[in-house]
């Protein structure tokens, strides 16, 4: 299936120079496997550490200083300083645009319709580098030719909330980050992004890319994505196919992880126990998805300690699951004096280190999950603790949580 519909192809043929008219067409036979991660179809609005103000409204006194710019504000899609926007007068840097400038915009059927700008805002973003890159506020860089030959015409910098237009639908840029041709640019500590408003939803052109315009705030705080004429698609099956097409294109062009050191991935969960005195107990063996541990006498509570990573980091951003997942635990059995007893506190109680029940069997840990056994243990007896592991995910090799960092 091609990236673009017939209407879109005609548009790109007009826009892209004659030497760069090879519209990308890839197969959709890439199989995407999700192990143990529950689907969440709705995309959560990405955090933004910013102050937003109307740059042409002198009554708007909201100024970006270092302190106020670090407070989260409403997420607003936009493009960064010096991005060229397609207007009736030709390409112009976004910061030079003012209300009244007429943009060349398109509807979802790719019919051209001029649209005057009603407001130009400035979003002053201060990056918080201590957070994961998708939450820190870094802009996303889309490399030249990332989508197709000549698309974009040069590198484009966007906010993570900015939507790109593909085949009659919008896709948030954050879901397409592949760390090759589309990635968070860590060279920025702070920056200004410019959301452009028109009278209604519009598809505008930024360095050759079709992107969504911004919309005025809705009184009931409805996210702007829900009010566009074209749907914003975040479903894994749809976005996943597009993601893998763009990733395959990046690899075919010889792009590598030269800008980033790719994390070392392992499928070994390395589940162990940590006692209340800080002693690390390695598993005795693992068989048929049962991890078995010898418990010393008088150990009445432990923490289940394992590797733990976020699916968005180790699978793909379109998975949209930002929980830090350790292992999905099923039944737990404690055997003393050859008498097995079931421990069910992890399924019944609100314990530290356990994620909320997600409707699937068992329960996920966050990599350091508390398991009390006070009423289950016999005095001065060794015990055999068997933990059923229902599911795991890929992990970053050194991604341990809590005190386990000291026991690598």
Task: Characterise this structure.
- With 408 residues, the protein is mainly β.
- It has two domains: 6-252, Beta Complex (Endonuclease - Pi-scei, Chain A, domain 1), CATH 2.170.16.10; 265-407, Immunoglobulin-like, CATH 2.60.40.
- 9% of the residues lie in helices and 30% in strands.
- The strands form eight sheets. Strands 1, 2, 5, 6, 12 and 13 form a six-stranded antiparallel sheet that branches. Strands 19, 20, 22, 23, 24 and 26 form a six-stranded antiparallel sheet that branches. A four-stranded antiparallel sheet has the order 18-17-21-25, with no helix packed on it.
- Mean pLDDT is 81; it is low at 1-50, 61-74 and 218-227.
- This is Hedgehog/Intein (Hint) domain-containing protein.
- It comes from Acetobacter pasteurianus NBRC 3188.
- Residues 352-369 have a biased composition (Basic and acidic residues).
- Residues 58-80, 352-377 are annotated as: Disordered.
- It holds the Pfam family Hint_2.
Total number of distinct structural domains: 2
The proportion of residues in beta strands is 25-35%
* Secondary-structure-derived class: mainly beta
| Rg calc | 25 Å
CATH uppermost class of the largest domain: Mainly Beta
- Our count of helices gives 4
CATH superfamily of the largest domain: Hedgehog/Intein (Hint) domain
The general outline is elongated
Biggest sheet record: 6 strands, antiparallel
The CATH architecture designation of the largest domain is Beta Complex
Low-confidence stretches: 1-50, 61-74, 218-227
Number of strands: 27
Measured distance between first and last alpha carbons: 46 Å
Q: Could you estimate the helical fraction of the residues in percent?
A: under 10%
The mean pLDDT is 81
- Could you tell me the CATH topology label of the largest domain: Endonuclease - Pi-scei, Chain A, domain 1
């Amino acid at each position: 299936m091609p990236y673009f519909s017939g209407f879109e192809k005609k548009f790109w043929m007009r826009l892209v120079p004659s030497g760069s008219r090879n519209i990308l067409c890839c197969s959709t036979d890439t199989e995407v496997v999700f192990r143990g991660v529950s689907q969440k179809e709705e995309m959560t609005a990405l955090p933004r550490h910013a102050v937003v103000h109307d740059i042409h409204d002198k009554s708007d006194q909201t100024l970006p200083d270092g302190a106020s710019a670090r407070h989260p504000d409403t997420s607003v899609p936009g493009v960064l300083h010096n991005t060229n926007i397609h207007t009736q007068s030709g390409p112009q840097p976004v910061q030079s645009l003012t209300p009244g400038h007429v943009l060349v915009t398109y509807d979802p059927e790719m019919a051209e319709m001029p649209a005057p700008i009603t407001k130009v805002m400035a979003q002053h973003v201060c990056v918080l580098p201590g957070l994961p890159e998708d939450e820190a506020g870094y802009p996303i860089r889309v490399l030249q030719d990332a989508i197709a030959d000549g698309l974009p015409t040069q590198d484009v910098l966007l906010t993570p909330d900015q939507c790109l237009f593909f085949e009659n639908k919008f896709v948030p840029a954050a879901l397409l980050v592949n760390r090759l041709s589309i990635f968070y640019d860590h060279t920025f500590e702070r920056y200004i992004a410019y959301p452009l408003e028109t009278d209604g939803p519009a598809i505008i052109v930024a360095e050759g890319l079709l992107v969504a315009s911004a919309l005025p705030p809705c009184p009931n705080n409805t996210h702007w994505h829900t009010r566009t004429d074209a749907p914003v698609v975040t479903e894994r099956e749809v976005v996943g196919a597009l993601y893998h097409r763009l990733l395959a294109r990046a690899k075919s062009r010889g792009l590598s992880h030269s800008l980033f050191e790719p994390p070392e991935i392992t499928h070994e969960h390395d589940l162990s126990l940590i006692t209340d005195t800080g002693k690390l107990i390695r598993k005795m063996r693992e068989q048929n998805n049962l991890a078995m541990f010898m418990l010393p006498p008088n150990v009445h509570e432990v923490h289940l300690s394992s590797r733990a990573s976020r699916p968005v980091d180790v699978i793909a951003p379109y998975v949209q699951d930002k929980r830090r997942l350790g292992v999905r635990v099923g039944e737990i059995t404690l055997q003393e004096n050859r008498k097995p007893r079931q421990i069910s506190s992890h399924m019944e109680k609100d314990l530290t280190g356990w994620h909320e029940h997600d409707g699937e069997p068992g329960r996920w840990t966050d990599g350091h999950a508390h398991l009390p056994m006070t009423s289950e243990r016999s005095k001065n007896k060794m015990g055999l603790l068997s933990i059923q592991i229902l599911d795991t995910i890929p992990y970053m090799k050194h991604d341990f949580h809590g005190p386990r960092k000291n026991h690598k």
